[in-house]
Design a protein that fits this description.
heterodimer, A: 187 residues, mainly alpha, Rna Polymerase Sigma Factor, Chain: A, 2 domains, 75% helix, globular, B: 423 residues, flat
């Protein structure tokens, strides 16, 4: 708990500096949230190359708009997730009909020590999960990814989605039932 | 009103996060078992999915692209000062600064590496000036300062970095590579001054903790500095000398012109309390000696020696009087028959007691600059007292008593006729 408070305090300091145009502070925030934002976008798009591209766009938009951040009244990471979500939505709206990037297998966080077969299986597991999530309505995708992939609290999910916590709980329940049904249909 | 399924699901998910099994959760809500079981298993599957992350190649490419784009919006900036040692490059000493667009890329990569457990960052920790990874090591330090938010945390980091600079200097000297030692000494001094900055306007509770750890650190610093100084020459030697002066000045924090003060400001002083308890005397008695100018390490030695001597005249007051006359602790112990004088007068053996010029051992408190300079202990640490020993008021350590194995051995008790030494 104390560690959380300390981390929060450190982050707030960095955000304050970044808002004032401190590129180095923004670099630190970029380093802190790169993996989380990438992971979120990967699960929303299912394509490692697209996820990389959109992750960069997300941070560039954040840097461009950081002067307006404090007016949003939400934590910095929630603000970043909102930008990432809009970036993904824009991507689907404008590029849907174009030839998609070649799909590359996702990079896993703990690939070291895995044999080729185990690595293949784990990558397949991720792809299967991502594919199932992508079949859900957008709101349900959001809640499933933010809650179970990113490990965020209902409080933060509700902040990102602009909904009440109880609404997020209802969406979570429906999403899990739908996801379970999708897996049952596959098997 | 009965609880909704959404809330029950949430409660179960929370409990599972704390380590409960699906079955344990289901047993608490038997009426919901059929509905909950499949979705809790689905949630477990989601949570245990392998984590994805950006590829290493993307991290590097993206950080560089981001840096360029960010820099395009800001004024051009200079090279981070701490990269000056990369590939042996040396530039003049500059102050730590925190605003380099180019360092964006490094900071971003570094933090991403720290989060992901980067091997390069780990490997850089043993790097020395001139090594390719030394820049990364400096960057790790800068980043730790950058992401630390409180003043005391900064001070502790500066103290840690000062110690690191000293160790680097000692290693370089031992390897016969003294080229960077002069710069390292200047950086050491800068780090020490930065470490003490929070104490400039008084001492609060948090700062007491910082001070309490300081005594032991300064003792270590003085020892290393003395060793380095003995092995370098000319300009580098002068730089080491300046670093020793800074270290000495730092140790004087808490001393005021109008007399000796308790450097920690703590009342009652925790070390004083512990010593009183250990030697079964009153707190006031301990603090009387303390306010007379004796450090807690000194006080611990005096009571420890006194407890070994049966002779009525050899009490603590007598031992302190000898110290004020200039006797070293090992001299006193030799005279009392607690240790045997070494045959060649080369100072006491390592395991026989404290060397005259170093006071109590490291964990017993800072040395008291005591002991006649001409009765040197081991050559490496036998610096003159005014250079090598921080004064008593440098801040007492947590454990102010001499260690069990540092005093006289069990069978080295005083001779039956042990009486007060005479000069």
């Amino acid at each position: 708990m104390a560690e959380d408070a300390t981390n929060r305090s450190c982050e707030e300091g960095l955000v304050r500096q970044a808002v004032q145009g401190d590129a180095e502070a923004f670099g630190a925030l970029y380093g802190l949230y790169l993996d989380a934002i990438y992971k979120y976008i990967y699960y929303r798009t299912g394509n490692a190359v697209v996820a990389e591209d959109l992750t960069e766009h997300t941070f560039l938009k954040a840097w461009s708009g950081i002067g307006n951040y404090e007016q949003q009244g939400i934590r910095f990471s929630s603000w970043l997730y909102r930008i990432a979500r809009n970036t993904v939505i824009d991507y689907y709206r404008t590029k849907r009909e174009e030839v998609p990037f070649a799909s590359e297998p996702p990079t896993l966080a703990k690939e070291e020590g895995l044999g080729p077969e185990a690595l293949l299986l784990r990558r397949e597991e991720v792809k299967e999960l991502q594919h199932a999530i992508s079949q859900l309505p957008e709101e349900q995708q959001q809640v499933i990814i933010l809650r179970f992939v990113e490990g965020l609290s209902h409080r933060q999910v509700s902040e990102i989605m602009g909904k009440s916590e109880s609404a997020c709980r209802v969406i979570q329940h429906r999403a899990l039932i739908a996801l379970r049904r999708l897996f049952s249909e596959v098997k | 009103m009965s609880e909704s399924i959404e809330s029950i699901l949430d409660r179960c998910l929370e409990e599972m996060e704390k380590g409960r099994s699906v079955e344990e959760c289901l047993s608490r809500y038997p009426q919901w078992r059929d509905e909950l079981a499949p979705i809790l298993r689905m949630a477990t599957r989601l949570r245990s999915a392998p984590e994805v992350e950006p590829s290493a190649a993307f991290r590097q490419r993206a950080a560089i692209r981001m840096a360029n784009l960010v820099a395009a919006r800001k004024e051009p900036v200079t090279k981070p000062p701490r990269l000056r040692y990369i590939d042996g490059e040396r530039q003049g000493l500059q102050k730590r600064e925190r605003r380099f667009a180019m360092s964006f890329v490094l900071i971003a990569l570094l933090i991403a590496s720290l989060v992901a457990g980067g091997g390069t960052v780990y490997a850089s920790q043993d790097a020395l000036p001139g090594d390719p990874l030394y820049g990364v090591k400096m960057l790790v330090e800068d980043t730790r300062l950058l992401i630390n938010a409180d003043e005391i945390g900064d001070a502790e980091l500066h103290l840690e970095f000062a110690t690191e600079r000293l160790e680097e200097a000692a290693t370089l000297v031992a390897q016969g590579r003294p080229d960077f030692v002069e710069d390292l000494m200047a950086e050491y001094a800068e780090e020490m001054e930065a470490a003490l900055a929070p104490l400039a306007d008084g001492v609060d509770d948090e700062e007491i903790d910082l001070l309490e750890g300081l005594g032991e650190t300064l003792t270590h610093h003085q020892t290393v500095l003395a060793r380095v100084r003995a092995q370098v020459q000319d300009r580098t030697r002068s730089a080491v000398q300046r670093a020793m002066e800074v270290c000495g000045a730092v140790s004087e924090v808490g001393e005021e012109d109008d007399g000796f003060v308790n450097p920690t400001g703590a009342d009652p002083h925790p070390v004083g309390e512990r010593l009183a308890q250990r030697y079964d005397v009153t707190y006031d008695e301990i603090m009387t000696w303390f306010y007379d100018g004796f450090g807690f390490g000194e006080i611990a030695w005096a009571y420890s020696i006194s407890s070994l001597i049966e002779h009525q005249e050899v009490d603590v007051a007598y031992l302190f009087a000898l110290r004020e006359e200039g006797w070293g602790w090992s001299e006193i112990m030799q005279e009392l028959g607690l240790i045997v004088r070494p045959p060649d007068d080369a100072g006491p053996p390592d395991d026989a007691g404290p060397p005259d010029d170093s006071g109590p051992p490291d964990d017993a408190g800072p040395p008291n600059d005591a002991g006649p300079p001409d009765k040197a202990g081991p050559p490496d640490e036998a610096e003159p007292p005014d250079e090598a020993g921080p004064p008593d008021d440098a801040g007492p350590p947590d454990d102010a008593g001499p260690p069990d194995d540092a005093g006289p051995p069990d069978d080295a008790g005083p001779p039956d006729d042990a009486g007060p030494p005479t000069r």
